[in-house]
Amino acid sequence: MRILIVEDEAGIVQFLQQGLEEEGYEIATAYDGLMGLELAQKENFDLILLDWMLPKMNGLDVCKYIRTKDKITPIIFLTARDTVQETIDGLKAGANDYIKKPFSFDELVERIKIHFRNQTEPEILKLGAIEINLAKHLVTADGIEANLTQREFELLCYLVRNKGKVCTRTQIIEDVWDIHFDYDTGVIDVFINGIRKKLNLKIEEDYIKTIRGVGYIAND
Q1: Cα 196 vs. chain centroid, distance in angstroms?
Q2: Dihedral sign, CA of 167, 169, 171, 177?
């Protein structure tokens, strides 16, 4: 697996590169946003670790530019920014996840493994007028393609596979994110709102219903 690290602090880059190479990953590095974007566009990576504050081009813009061409490669922000609005901005830009600095290397490795899970066998999932083609990573609603991020896609698939069952926020964090330690489950609401908007669901009860204080349920 190839990982691109885009980070301007040399000490952090050296620490991450050494640790991740010991874990068996192939590492490429970039020390500014422009260089990181160029590498991401020229070469194939299985995951990108992206700092937010970078010289020449900030991480948020780098993420946005990458997503204009690449909707699949997981992007994890490494950032000291952790306000709700900044988290939302990062997710809207196309990031799959974020880790606040300073962070635990063990936690980072676990987060990376989450995004390297094996994909399921190709199949079609349906929820009313919504159709999910897993092989093509394609979602349509009433025949119109919905441009979901990787995390939105995974969350929608999870809800549809558990159609008719209430999925708690804790279950979603554990089963979709594969995180089994304290984590802000409120971030799920951001992804749900993004899914609803992109599927043009006019009311909360359309296919994905909120169970107040608990989680969500998908129904035809």
Answers
A1: 16
A2: positive
- What are the percentages of helix, strand and coil residues in the chain, rounded to 5? 40, 25, 40
Assess contact for 106 and 23: CB atoms under 8 A: no
Give Rg (Cα) of the chain: 18
Between CA 135 and CA 75 the distance in angstroms is 21
d(CA 136, CA 122): 8
pTM of structure = 0.58
To which residue do tokens 């995974």 refer? 154
CB 148 within 8 A of CB 195: yes
pLDDT level of residue 121 (50, 70, 90 thresholds): very low
Give the mean model confidence (pLDDT) for residues 8-24: 93
Collapsed DSSP state (helix, strand, coil) of residue 161: helix
* CA nearest to 71, candidates 163, 139, 142, 161: 139
The tens digit of pLDDT for each residue in 129-178 reads 999 988 778 899 988 999 998 889 989 999 998 888 899 988 888 888 76
